[in-house]
């Protein structure tokens, strides 16, 4: 059934359709509307047999989820940005314990400087925590990925993050096809945990493991992700059969077949990229794109295959690995090891900076002419940066950079 | 393997209780061991009673079981609970906590209960066919007879007098030992299978062996000849001896007339008894003259106290130097540095119409003069070897007639000891007393665990009735108070199954074996921390170095 | 004030001071006295000799197991108790047990309780437990949150007054003057110089939760009574158990219970219960000792008893803490308090 609703509301309803038994909530922009939505459904009695728990921190939120999941409840929470960092220890712990928690990340930048707008710094910081990370391109996909995430998590006993761009998706009103409860029930079986806290089977969960077994435990965590590479497309396939639309999977290719220049990106920016590609294809350029849906596990083989025709790959990266460049680009390079294509890293959209079609167009043109240098910052105000660098060189007590840049921006804008 | 279910996560999830594979006993440098130590009460008991043992049952309210343990050592608990000077209580560790356990009161309760209920001791041995003659039906003879019977021998007691009981009857006034109690316990010994022949003076010991065919003879005729001293007298009034007075009290059909003012000379328990008897017989003044002070007197302090309560006047540090009709000249004494009384040369006079000597008693050994091999020691008592046998083979002796402290309890102990020696001798063996455990000292106890519970006071007869009647002075504990008193026992040195060791072990290395079976250490897991020993209330656990 | 049942028992040789007592009615004996106790922590764990925490945890959990008829789940914070019970491949636990992190046990327990509630398993009860580090320091936020929500969890703190697992560092429960690896007994102010320690039972009471109690390994009957009572209630409950650590306190391994007893009898560790923020019951001091008697048996206070003389002033500070507790909680009857 189609609804014109906010992304967060759509996700809240999708989560509710998955019949979570415990939902933990702690507010952080831009994730708030999602848990508010779930909470309202519980309070209204539309989501029954669900404990909605307001906690005192993100650390507590995921910790409550850990306890609930270990006791056999289907468990959900959501966070973003600083909140994800504050729960970092529990993020690793949930994965280490193999608890199939599903968590939405309303992707947002990390401070300082504090910034509530979108980029991927938060979820990227947890990329190696052992969770599966799925990135939604649209709100429809966000809805669909959540439904798939529970099945994936529970089949593998592995937690899943569904990442959706803060504001761009979470706060966007779109037409969404929300499935019926019957459809979701048909797709998502009851949660049958492989281990559960149970007085009838009093296992100890969470033992201390020393050098004699730790490597094996970690190997098994890796193996679980490798299994997910099989499972994610399978579940995507089943999903499309039940719900009548393709959604999920490891990657989405767009006009990449035979393309010489291929753009790779995560999440909602792929929409903009596709529009630019359409324009450039119209201009006769052999350009396409690949949207990576599953960042963890990282689909090396599938991506390598998708990029096989490319002479160059442009990675649009909403994330910065200072001192290196881009995290996604590094992973893409892993996929292309031994291949001849050039990989360009373009850092874009940090802290909510709009990624404009024109800017992308210019970058893609430059790339197709191999005039792009690696680690480009899209729409960087070079004048401000130069001034600030100069000021810092000459003034020992130069003060906070962020404020200084704001002042410079004002001056430059005059 | 971390767990047995292949679906469960490897290493992080573990099967319950699997640490039992880890034997932490290897950490230990000291190991706990249960031990049994000798409680000071048992150690002090002249009758060799297992006091702690019978209190254990009494604590549970299982009085017959308690009494059964008691009569394994002493056939006369009702008597003992009244007349014993209870050295057990002087030794009791509880006196360092609050007050000693009133062992005697519980013993008396059990003894009285047995008489009321008609409990009989359990026979323990089959008949041996051996015959033993016991000469004298005092505490020692009765005790020996009883124990010999328990051991399966046929026993005959011959008593020269008309009644059994010896000094229990003829030395202890009935206000301390009512005669129904005495008669009851003697009757039980007789009913237990001992033949008692009264008015049968044994004159010829060898004949008992040769003509009558006794296999062994135990003599315990006591010491009933009053010691006398000569006091210069111008014209002496009436002079009696205490033993005769107390004897006559028992046998005389008419009430004795001792006079209006009576002086008792001596400072022992008999002196106290006879002075208190005089008071009860109507003496206006009953006085005791004793040459030393209260500190040195052989009588027990409580006896002097009770005598004084009843109006007996005690003249300490006085010797009688001269008697002139009713006027007694006494010399003041003082105690020298060696604790001996010395004359001071100061004199005073007392008025009295009767003097009762209470200066101790000697043994009548005349009937032994002709028995070959029997030796009489210098102070008139009979020599025995370490097996209580005299120089005449098969003839044993005990009680007041051998060197000993002359108390009923010691006599009863002699009877038991003699019975064991006679039994062994009859079997051609030597009786060896089981080795004693080390003494359970107060400092081994963890007294925190005992409830605060001061001794209960037995009721006492009011003073008027004490001065005018021979009713028993000290009353009974009732059942609940006897139970309370029994439960004051600390069980020094011996496990009483309080479960402390079982509870306080951080390693669950103590196994509880069930009621009456105590505990055992699981040395596979015991790390040797010592908490069990430190928290054992009664000091029944030792920590010993681990053998390397 | 309600009557404390373990105090109403009449004299039975050792009354209710010992673990068991063959003279007592079965129902009045401790769980620990029973051969059927669950031994929630079984043998083979790697706690130090004389570990108060191993003992306290078994006392508490066995009691809770009895109270819940075995329908119990334990959540454990990181710390000694967790490490010495569950080194792969062996666990000492015999009840369902979950360890997540150092600072989140109260929240994890909230989740476990929520899961059982939503599944209709009201019979299954949840205990969270940790040491003083995880309770008063790193897990304090989660604990306060659990209290505030009144989640159906009994949280038990085994307080040994420092971070023992990492080698005896100071925690906010470390008492003044105590030597730890981070408050060394050197310099002008040897030992712990910070305040008087965080009083978590009082902080718990300030949350107005249904039940708060303190307990000690030195008083098993009291401890079991409190755990049993707590398990008979719903909502957030907190029990703070003093568990001496021979290693960290420098006390003899066989003195663990004795030291805990001295803490009570000196007044330094008052035993009390509180319901909805109000103190409802206090255990009176039975045989009072001075603070000094408690301090001098522990090497962590050895610098107060140097050969050249006792540090009278500092000992007096601790005595004043004890006196204050005695007055504040009414630990002594009026006449004996004089």
From TrEMBL, chain A:
This is Pyruvate ferredoxin oxidoreductase. Residues 14-227 form the Pyruvate flavodoxin/ferredoxin oxidoreductase pyrimidine binding domain. The lineage of its organism: Bacteria, Pseudomonadati, Pseudomonadota, Alphaproteobacteria, Rhodospirillales. Pfam families: PFOR_II, POR_N. Residues 259-356 form the Pyruvate:ferredoxin oxidoreductase core domain. SUPFAM superfamilies: Thiamin diphosphate-binding fold (THDP-binding), TK C-terminal domain-like. Gene3D superfamilies: 3.40.50.920, 3.40.50.970. It comes from the Bacteria. The keyword Oxidoreductase applies. GO terms for biological process: response to oxidative stress. InterPro entries: PFOR_II (IPR033412), Pyruvate:ferred/Flavod_OxRd (IPR050722), Pyrv_Fd/Flavodoxin_OxRdtase_N (IPR002880), THDP-binding (IPR029061), Transketo_C/PFOR_II (IPR009014). The keyword Cytoplasm does not apply. Keywords: Oxidoreductase, Pyruvate. Residues 395-414 are annotated as: Disordered. One of its GO terms (molecular function) is oxidoreductase activity.
From TrEMBL, chain B:
One of its GO terms (molecular function) is iron-sulfur cluster binding. The keyword Nucleotide-binding does not apply. Residues 486-516, 517-546 form the 4Fe-4S ferredoxin-type domain. It comes from the Bacteria. Keywords: Iron, Iron-sulfur, Metal-binding. InterPro entries: 4Fe4S_Fe-S-bd, 4Fe4S_Fe_S_CS, DPD_II, FAD/NAD-bd_sf, FAD/NAD-binding_dom, Helical_ferredxn. This is Glutamate synthase. The lineage of its organism: Bacteria, Pseudomonadati, Pseudomonadota, Alphaproteobacteria, Rhodospirillales.
TrEMBL record, chain C:
Signal peptide: none annotated. It comes from the Bacteria. GO terms for molecular function: oxidoreductase activity; thiamine pyrophosphate binding. InterPro entries: PorB-like (IPR051479), THDP-binding (IPR029061), TPP_enzyme_TPP-bd (IPR011766). GO terms for biological process: small molecule metabolic process. SUPFAM superfamilies: Thiamin diphosphate-binding fold (THDP-binding). Keywords: Oxidoreductase, Pyruvate. Residues 78-241 form the Thiamine pyrophosphate enzyme TPP-binding domain. This is Pyruvate ferredoxin oxidoreductase. It comes from Magnetovibrio blakemorei.
């Amino acid at each position: 059934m189609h609804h014109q609703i906010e992304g967060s509301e759509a996700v809240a309803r999708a989560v509710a359709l998955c019949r979570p038994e415990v939902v933990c909530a702690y507010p952080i922009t831009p994730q708030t509307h999602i848990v508010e939505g779930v909470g309202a459904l519980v309070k209204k009695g539309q989501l029954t047999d669900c404990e909605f728990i307001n906690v005192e921190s993100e650390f507590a939120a995921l910790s409550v989820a850990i306890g609930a999941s270990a006791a056999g409840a289907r468990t959900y929470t959501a966070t973003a940005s600083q909140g994800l960092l504050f729960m970092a220890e529990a993020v690793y712990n949930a994965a280490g314990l193999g608890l199939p928690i599903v968590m939405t990340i309303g992707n947002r930048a990390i401070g300082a400087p504090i910034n509530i707008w979108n980029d991927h710094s938060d979820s990227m910081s947890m990329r190696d925590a052992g969770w599966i990370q799925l990135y939604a391109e649209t709100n429809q996909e966000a809805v669909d990925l959540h439904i798939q995430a529970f099945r994936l998590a529970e089949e593998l006993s592995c937690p899943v993050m569904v990442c959706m761009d803060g504001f761009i998706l979470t706060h966007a009103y779109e037409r969404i096809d929300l499935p019926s409860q019957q459809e979701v029930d048909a797709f998502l079986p009851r949660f049958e945990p492989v281990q559960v806290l149970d007085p009838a089977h009093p296992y100890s969960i969470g033992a201390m493991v020393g050098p004699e077994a730790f490597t094996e435990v970690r190997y098994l965590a890796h193996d679980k992700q490798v299994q997910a590479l099989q499972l994610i497309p399978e579940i995507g396939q089943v999903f499309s059969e039940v719900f009548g639309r393709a959604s999920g999977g490891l990657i989405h290719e767009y006009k990449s077949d035979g393309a010489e220049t291929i753009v790779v990106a995560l999440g909602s920016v792929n929409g903009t990229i596709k529009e630019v590609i359409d324009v450039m294809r119209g201009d006769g350029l052999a350009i396409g794109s690949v949207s990576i849906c599953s960042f963890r596990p990282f689909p090396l083989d599938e991506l390598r295959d998708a990029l096989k025709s490319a002479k160059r790959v442009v990675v649009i990266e909403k994330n910065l690995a200072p001192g290196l460049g881009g995290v996604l680009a590094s992973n893409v390079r892993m996929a292309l090891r031994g291949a001849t294509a050039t990989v360009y890293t373009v850092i874009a959209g940090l802290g909510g900076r709009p990624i404009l079609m024109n800017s992308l167009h210019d970058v893609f043109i430059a790339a197709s002419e191999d005039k792009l240098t690696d680690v480009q910052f899209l729409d960087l105000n070079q004048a401000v940066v130069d001034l600030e660098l100069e000021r810092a060189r000459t003034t020992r007590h130069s003060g906070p950079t962020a404020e200084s840049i704001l002042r410079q921006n004002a001056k430059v804008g005059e | 393997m971390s767990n047995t279910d292949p679906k469960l996560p490897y290493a992080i999830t573990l099967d319950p209780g699997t640490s039992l594979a880890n034997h932490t006993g290897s950490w230990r440098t000291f190991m706990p061991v249960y031990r049994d130590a000798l409680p000071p009460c048992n150690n002090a008991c002249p009758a060799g009673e297992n006091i702690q043992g019978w209190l254990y049952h009494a604590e549970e309210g299982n009085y017959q079981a308690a009494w059964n343990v008691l009569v394994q050592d002493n056939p006369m608990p009702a008597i003992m609970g009244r007349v014993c000077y209870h050295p057990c209580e002087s030794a009791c560790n509880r006196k360092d906590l609050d007050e000693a356990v009133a062992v005697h009161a519980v013993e008396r309760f059990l003894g009285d209960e047995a008489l009321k209920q008609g409990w009989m001791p359990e026979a323990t041995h089959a008949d041996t066919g051996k015959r033993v003659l016991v000469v004298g039906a005092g505490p020692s003879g009765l005790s020996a007879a009883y124990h010999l019977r328990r051991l399966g021998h046929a026993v005959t007691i011959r008593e020269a007098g008309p009644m059994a009981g010896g000094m229990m009857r003829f030395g202890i006034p009935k206000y301390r030992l009512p005669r129904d109690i005495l008669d009851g316990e003697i009757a039980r010994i007789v009913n237990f299978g001992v033949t008692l022949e009264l008015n049968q003076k044994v004159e010829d010991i060898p004949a008992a062996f040769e003509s009558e065919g006794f296999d062994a003879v135990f003599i315990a005729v006591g010491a009933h000849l009053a010691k006398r001293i000569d006091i210069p007298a111008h014209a002496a009034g009436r002079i009696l001896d205490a033993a005769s007075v107390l004897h006559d009290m028992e046998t005389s059909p008419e009430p004795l007339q001792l006079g209006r003012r009576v002086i008792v000379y001596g400072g022992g328990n008999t002196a106290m008894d006879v002075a208190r008897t005089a008071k009860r017989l109507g003496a206006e003044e009953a006085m005791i003259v004793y040459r030393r002070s209260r500190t040195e007197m052989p009588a027990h302090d409580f006896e002097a106290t009770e005598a004084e309560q009843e109006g007996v006047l005690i003249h300490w540090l006085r010797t009688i130097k001269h008697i002139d009709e009713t006027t007694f000249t006494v010399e003041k004494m003082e105690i020298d540095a060696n604790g001996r009384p010395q004359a001071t040369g100061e004199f005073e006079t007392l008025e009295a119409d009767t003097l009762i000597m209470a200066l101790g008693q000697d043994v009548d050994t005349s009937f032994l003069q002709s028995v070959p091999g029997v030796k009489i020691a210098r102070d008139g008592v009979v020599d025995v070897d370490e097996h209580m046998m005299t120089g005449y083979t098969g003839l044993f002796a005990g009680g007041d007639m051998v060197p000993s402290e002359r108390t009923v309890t010691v006599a009863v102990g002699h009877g038991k000891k003699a019975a064991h020696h006679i039994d062994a001798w009859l079997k051609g063996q030597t009786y060896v007393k089981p080795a004693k455990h080390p003494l359970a000292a107060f400092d081994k106890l963890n007294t925190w665990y005992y409830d605060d519970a001061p001794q209960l006071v037995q009721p006492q007869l009011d003073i008027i009735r004490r001065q005018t009647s021979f009713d028993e002075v000290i009353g009974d504990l009732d059942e609940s108070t006897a139970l309370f008193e029994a439960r004051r026992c600390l069980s020094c040195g011996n496990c009483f199954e309080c479960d402390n060791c079982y509870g306080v072990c951080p390693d669950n290395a103590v196994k509880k074996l069930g009621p009456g079976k105590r505990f055992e250490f699981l040395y596979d897991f015991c790390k040797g921390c010592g908490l069990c020993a430190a928290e054992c209330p009664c000091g029944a656990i030792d920590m010993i170095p681990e053998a390397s | 004030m309600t009557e404390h049942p373990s105090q109403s028992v009449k004299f039975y040789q050792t009354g209710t001071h010992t673990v068991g007592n063959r003279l007592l009615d079965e129902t009045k004996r401790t769980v620990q006295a029973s051969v059927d106790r669950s031994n929630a922590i079984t043998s083979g764990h790697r706690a130090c000799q004389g570990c108060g925490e191993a003992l306290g945890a078994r006392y508490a959990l066995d009691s809770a197991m009895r109270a819940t008829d075995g329908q119990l789940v334990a959540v454990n914070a990181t710390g000694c108790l967790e490490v010495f019970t569950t080194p792969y491949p062996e666990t000492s636990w015999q009840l369902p047990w979950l360890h997540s992190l150092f600072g989140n046990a109260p929240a994890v327990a909230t989740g476990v309780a929520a899961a059982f509630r939503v599944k209709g398993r009201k019979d299954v009860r949840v205990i969270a437990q940790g040491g003083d580090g995880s309770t008063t320091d790193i897990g304090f936020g989660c604990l306060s949150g659990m209290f505030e929500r009144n989640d159906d969890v009994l949280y038990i703190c085994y307080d040994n007054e420092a971070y023992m697992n990492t080698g005896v560092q100071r925690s906010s429960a470390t008492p003044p003057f105590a030597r730890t690896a981070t408050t060394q007994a050197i310099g002008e102010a040897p030992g712990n110089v910070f305040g008087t320690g965080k009083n978590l039972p009082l902080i718990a009471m300030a949350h107005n939760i249904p039940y708060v109690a303190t307990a000690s390994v030195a008083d098993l009957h009291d401890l079991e009574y409190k755990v049993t009572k707590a398990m008979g209630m719903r909502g957030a409950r907190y029990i703070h158990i003093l568990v001496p650590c021979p290693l960290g306190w420098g006390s003899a391994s066989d003195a663990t219970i004795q030291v805990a007893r001295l803490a009570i009898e000196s007044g330094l560790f008052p035993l009390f219960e509180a319901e909805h923020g109000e103190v409802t019951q206090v255990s009176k001091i039975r045989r009072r000792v001075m603070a000094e008697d408690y301090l001098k048996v522990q090497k962590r206070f050895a610098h107060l008893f140097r050969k050249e003389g006792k540090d009278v002033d500092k000992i007096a500070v601790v005595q004043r803490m004890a006196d204050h507790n005695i007055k504040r909680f009414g630990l002594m009857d009026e006449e004996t308090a004089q």
